[in-house]
């Protein structure tokens, strides 16, 4: 449930014609959320068959058009393309005269703030950076997940209220991010969310190799509790052999991983060293146990990753 007050329908600003440039997983979901708030999706651009299917599912009856045609029709334009493609897209739209004065131009990149939209700003557009801190599937469930989702918001001060109002209308909660802090903000989210997927996928693969028939069922309660504890307590939630200083157990882990899944050793060692550092700093790992543990981690890193049983 959003903690921000929801606007009364009679107090809402004029409904806007919404266009989407880039029908990936994010754009159609945000446009569908804006549609629930009373705005009107009028055009969407997509190239791949998958993007066209997403647009048809989330925005039925909204016509597919070129990016320039989308901007011609829309008052509020969502630029939902990959980070690396965003600067070139903005420059191209501005140079070709597709951007109109007074047009709200919104990008959803976590990496960039509002300055990436400077070419459009010079053409008279109103630049907003609204990044949903959420993972998207490209299905209707994404619209539901926006309820209570935090958005990293960056915009000129005079547009701050407009940016925050759009986020609230989509069911989200605005969190103001300074322009210069956007790369650090995005790195933090990638570290937590993207790397989590890698860790979970590797853990499930190892459990299958160990003979567990339903690794997802085994991990679900454990990971859910670990995530909840970490969000509530931070480093105080650290558990396991590294935090306890069980050097022998960690050495056995490294040996087994080298034998059965050598591709996971580097990641295990890196995370174990980071865990040890945090456990030491917060008084969870006793210094007298840390020496042996760190020695195991150093020796494990020095061994060749050849999969042999050592």
UniProtKB/TrEMBL annotation:
Domain Putative oxidoreductase/dehydrogenase Rossmann-like: 9-132
Superkingdom field: Bacteria
DUF2520 domain boundaries: 149-275
InterPro entries: 6-PGluconate_DH-like_C_sf, DUF2520, NAD(P)-bd_dom_sf, OxRdtase/DH_put_Rossmann_dom, TM1727-like_C_sf
PANTHER family: CONSERVED HYPOTHETICAL ALANINE AND LEUCINE RICH PROTEIN (PTHR40459:SF1)
Protein name: Rossmann-like and DUF2520 domain-containing protein
Organism of provenance: Streptomyces sp. R35
């Amino acid at each position: 449930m959003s903690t921000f007050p929801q606007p009364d329908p009679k107090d809402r600003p004029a409904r806007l014609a919404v266009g989407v440039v880039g029908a990936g997983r994010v754009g159609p979901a945000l446009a569908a959320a804006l549609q629930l708030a009373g705005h009107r999706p009028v055009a969407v651009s997509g190239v791949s068959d998958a993007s066209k299917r997403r647009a048809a599912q989330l925005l039925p009856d909204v016509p597919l058009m070129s990016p320039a045609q989308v901007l011609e029709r829309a008052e509020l334009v969502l630029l939902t393309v990959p980070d690396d493609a965003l600067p070139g897209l903005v420059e191209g739209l501005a140079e070709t005269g597709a951007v109109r004065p007074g047009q709200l131009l919104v990008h959803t990149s976590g990496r960039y703030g509002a300055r990436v939209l400077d070419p459009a700003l010079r053409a008279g557009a109103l630049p907003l950076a609204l990044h949903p801190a959420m993972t998207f599937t490209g299905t209707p469930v994404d619209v539901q997940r926006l309820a209570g989702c935090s958005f990293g918001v960056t915009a000129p001060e005079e547009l701050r209220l407009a940016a925050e109002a759009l986020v609230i209308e989509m069911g989200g909660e605005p969190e103001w991010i300074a322009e210069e802090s956007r790369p650090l903000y995005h790195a933090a989210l990638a570290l937590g969310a993207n790397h989590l997927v890698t860790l979970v996928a590797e853990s499930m693969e190892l459990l299958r190799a160990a003979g567990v028939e339903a690794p997802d069922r085994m991990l679900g309660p454990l990971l859910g509790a670990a995530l909840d504890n970490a969000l509530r307590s931070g480093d105080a939630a650290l558990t396991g052999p590294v935090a306890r200083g069980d050097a022998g157990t960690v050495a056995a882990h490294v040996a087994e991983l080298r034998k059965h899944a050598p591709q996971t050793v580097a990641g295990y060692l890196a995370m174990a060293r980071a865990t040890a550092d945090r456990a030491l700093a917060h008084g969870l790992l006793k210094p007298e146990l840390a020496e042996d543990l760190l020695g195991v981690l150093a020796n494990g890193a020095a061994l060749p990753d050849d999969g042999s049983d050592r």
